[in-house]
Amino acid sequence: MADEDKKTYKIGGRTFYQVPLVAGQQQWLYLALSGIVLGGLTHEDMLTLLYGRATELTAILLIEQGRTQAEKVRGGREQVKELEDWLGATVQVSDLTPVLRDFFDSGQLPALMGSVAETVVQTLKLDRSTQPTLTS
C-alpha cells in the first residue's frame, strides 16, 4: 500500500484511517449496498440514500489508529456495528462526508459493484459544495 492510498481522519476525538479495501470489507460493503435500486435516482435521492446509511458505510471503511486492517476484519461484523453505533451517537453526518467522498473518489466502488456502482459514481460524485438534506 502506497502512502498516498492512506487517508487519515480525526472524528469525535478519535483518529481513524482509510486504505483500499480488503475482501472482508468489500463483502460488508457489498451487502450494505446490495438490493438498492440505483437507476433513475436523482442526485438528491442518492444523497438521501447514502446519508441514511452514512454511519454503516463509514464504519465499514474506517480503521481506528493503532489497529491493522487485518485486525478490523478479523474482529468481524460485531465490531463494525459497535463503531457504527458509536458514530451514530457521537458525530454528525457532515463529519463523515470526507470519508465517504474519499471512498467514492477512489474508484474502488465500480470494481466492487460493477455497472451499478458506475451509476452511483456518475450520478453522485459527492459534490464538495453539496450539503445533505435528510427528509422524513
Strand order of the largest sheet: 1-2-3
Count of beta strands: 3
Percentage of residues in DSSP E strands = 5-15%
Counting helices, strands and paired strands, the structural category is mainly alpha
Radius of gyration: 14 Å
Shape: globular
Individual helix count: 7
Give the tags.
single chain, 7 helices, mainly alpha, 136 residues
Description:
By secondary structure, the protein is mainly α. Helices cover 59% and strands 9% of the residues. Helix 1 (23-33) packs antiparallel against helix 3. The radius of gyration is 14 Å and the shape is globular.
Can you describe this structure in just a few lines?
This protein is mainly α and 136 residues long. The protein contains seven helices and three strands.
Q: How is the topology of this model organized?
A:
Layout: E1 7-11, E2 14-18, H1 23-33, H2 43-52, H3 54-61, E3 63-64, H4 69-90, H5 93-105, H6 108-113, H7 115-124
Antiparallel strand pairs: 1-2, 2-3
